[in-house]
């Protein structure tokens, strides 16, 4: 590649992020690639960030912008929880995210998916795209990789999935997006939130299905050729 | 996105819209106002959201329909919530009618335009108070007017001509709905941001009614559609 590598390009999380509700809670999923121009600055980032014990956010777009918004919201929610005397609701968390995104829409470039569980409304997912619109959805997709998933979700999404069905759907979807989006890659991380608490999972490439034109990975050609060949000079 | 002048002087400049709603169409009929909009929220050319509510009742006497940037519409709803709350707190038996709400919105929109920080919307405000029907429109540059039928966006070009031909005083509810559906069907055929999930709302002296979302049937059975290049192979 004769391209000049711009190491000063802003860190952008190309990204694929997903949030899905199921009967009992939510499953959040994301890839793990952070790029600086064409260079992959971090191949194992964690884009699913805790806002409170029961609410997490998936971050996409500018890494810096999404981190600073998460940090502010975590700070405000912490104070709010102390004052309220009980866990914050998902709606409040999502609206705080919206306020920051909307009121700073000139400065920020970040699309977020807020997901969590509270005792009043159960599992909820809120999308907060560029511009600061807030929209509650049964499932949400975001980031550059999501372009490749609209058709997939139109076909594969169903109401009332179980926890395992939902997590499988998320894993499959992120993995499909990674296959086609250069700005998404690395591992698939999922976070499941329900009344029992939070479960973090980690799926490297070898634990994900293979798609069209993808081959089984091997350590070496030599393994494929079978019997070890001595060197012939 | 962020430029040096934004960070230094803290001024905001004209923005661009991200998640947008397309046309709203409304007309006066015998008992009040009928308004229609689809439930789409487009993100550029992607039809990203398909269940966005773009028609909202305001107070007891008005209906607001919005096209343009959805986040700005959501902010306008917050402002109106406060306006109606303060109106109720007076507890004086009076309530803001559609004319007053339209005027308030016009002030907000024009002032924001003057500060080069517009709310990127075109709004339709309709309602009935004391038997008086009112239907008006205001957009992001502060242009506002009232009429017997209004539309935003592509609706202005595609549906106003139909309404000019077919609208008359004292339409029944059924005639009004059929007319709006004719307009929405044309938009579905010819507006690429249209989504086939529409909401119709009505407002009368009794109050606002929001009908459930539904889809329109479309017609494709013209012979010319089935065989468009008969007699002219290679044409489109």
From TrEMBL, chain A:
Q: Where in the cell is it found?
A: Cytoplasm; Nucleus
The record's GO CC annotations read: proteasome complex
Entry keyword set = Cytoplasm, Hydrolase, Nucleus, Protease, Proteasome, Threonine protease
What does it catalyze? Cleavage of peptide bonds with very broad specificity
Which molecular function term from Gene Ontology is one that the record holds?
Answer: hydrolase activity
Q: Which CDD domains match?
A: proteasome_beta_type_6
- Which InterPro entries does its entry note? Ntn_hydrolases_N (IPR029055), Pept_T1A_subB (IPR000243), Proteasome_bsu_CS (IPR016050), Proteasome_sua/b (IPR001353), Proteasome_suB-type (IPR023333)
Pfam families on file: Proteasome
Assembly: Component of the proteasome complex.
As for what it does, the entry says:
The proteasome is a multicatalytic proteinase complex which is characterized by its ability to cleave peptides with Arg, Phe, Tyr, Leu, and Glu adjacent to the leaving group at neutral or slightly basic pH. The proteasome has an ATP-dependent proteolytic activity. Component of the proteasome, a multicatalytic proteinase complex which is characterized by its ability to cleave peptides with Arg, Phe, Tyr, Leu, and Glu adjacent to the leaving group at neutral or slightly basic pH. The proteasome has an ATP-dependent proteolytic activity.
Q: Which family does it belong to?
A: Belongs to the peptidase T1B family.
What name does this protein carry? Proteasome subunit beta
Which organism does this record belong to? Stylosanthes scabra
Q: Which gene encodes it?
A: PBA1_2
From TrEMBL, chain B:
Do the record's keywords include Nucleus? yes
- Note whether Nucleus occurs among the keywords: yes
The coiled-coil regions, if any, are: none
The UniProt entry's GO CC annotations, sorted and at most eight, read: proteasome complex
Tell me which CDD domains the record gives.
proteasome_beta_type_4
> Which InterPro entries did the record assign?
Ntn_hydrolases_N (IPR029055), Proteasome_alpha (IPR050115), Proteasome_beta4 (IPR016295), Proteasome_bsu_CS (IPR016050), Proteasome_sua/b (IPR001353), Proteasome_suB-type (IPR023333)
The compartments listed are: Cytoplasm; Nucleus
Which terms in the Gene Ontology molecular function aspect does this entry carry? hydrolase activity
Tell me the keywords, alphabetical order.
Cytoplasm, Hydrolase, Nucleus, Proteasome
Quaternary form?
Component of the 20S core complex of the 26S proteasome. The 26S proteasome is composed of a core protease (CP), known as the 20S proteasome, capped at one or both ends by the 19S regulatory particle (RP/PA700). The 20S proteasome core is composed of 28 subunits that are arranged in four stacked rings, resulting in a barrel-shaped structure. The two end rings are each formed by seven alpha subunits, and the two central rings are each formed by seven beta subunits. The catalytic chamber with the active sites is on the inside of the barrel.
Family label: Belongs to the peptidase T1B family.
Please describe what this protein does: Non-catalytic component of the proteasome.
The entry's protein name is Proteasome subunit beta
Native organism is Stylosanthes scabra
Identify the taxonomic lineage of the organism of origin: Eukaryota, Viridiplantae, Streptophyta, Embryophyta, Tracheophyta
Name of the gene this protein is made from: PBG1_4
